[in-house]
Amino acid sequence: AQTVTQSQPEMSVQEAETVTLSxxxxxxxxxxxxxxxxxxxxxxxxLVIRQEAYKQQNATENRFSVNFQKAAxxxxxxxxxxxxxxxxxxxxxxxxxTTGKLIFGQGTTLxxxx
Amino acid sequence: DTGVSQDPRHKxxxxxxxxxxxxxxxxxxxxxxxxxxxxxxxxxxxxxxxNEAQLxxxxxxxxxxxxxxxxxxxxxxxxxxxxxxxxxxxxxxxxYRQGDEKLFFGSGTQLSVL
Lengths: 114, 114
Hints:
Distance between the termini of chain A: 41 Å
Structural class of chain B: mainly beta
Shape of chain B: globular
Helix content of chain B: under 10%
Number of strands of chain B: 11
Largest interface: A-B, 23 and 26 residues
Number of helices of chain A: 0
Distance between the termini of chain B: 36 Å
Number of strands of chain A: 12
Order of helices and strands of chain B: EEEEEEEEEEE
Helix content of chain A: under 10%
Structural class of chain A: mainly beta
Shape of chain A: globular
Largest sheet of chain A: 6 strands, mixed
Oligomer: heterodimer
Low-confidence stretches of chain B: none
Largest sheet of chain B: 7 strands, mixed
Strand content of chain B: over 45%
Strand content of chain A: over 45%
């Protein structure tokens, strides 16, 4: 079975600093996608970043970047220059192949402090 | 592009009643997904459609739950004889097509069963 594990239930960071959220996953598949989603208090799930497993290059979206270690099955999210609006719950998620069926981790609550 | 729309945003019902939720995906998205999320947890997959065909149902979807997507446009999720354990946020998501594994989520329907 595919699983996604986020071992940090809560984290906090000072505004403008950098924070890294951890995620590990378990799969025997070779073709898959990994995601980070953000869920602010409004509970709208927002896609932050996506990584295709076949790509060795780490994905980057503005202040958000990932460290994808395929052999270690690790997929961490780095947020640079943290902003108050980054306060949210962050979910790591995995899709096998092209089913589109997302498997989510338990989430990490991130608080950005002024 | 108005995003994924869900209605209602909140629903309070008494145990044993039937409820129905609606999801309107992003126009031209042919895949539509339903997820359930309880407080403090990641969303769990319930079912998904490609156009009007329901391709997969989770074991979480008991026979009290039924989902439809007539004509491959909007979808409805019905829960019959609601139980207190059905209280959760029900999230709908859509994606453009197989191979474009980016899911866009609606704001969800929060169900409270008293």
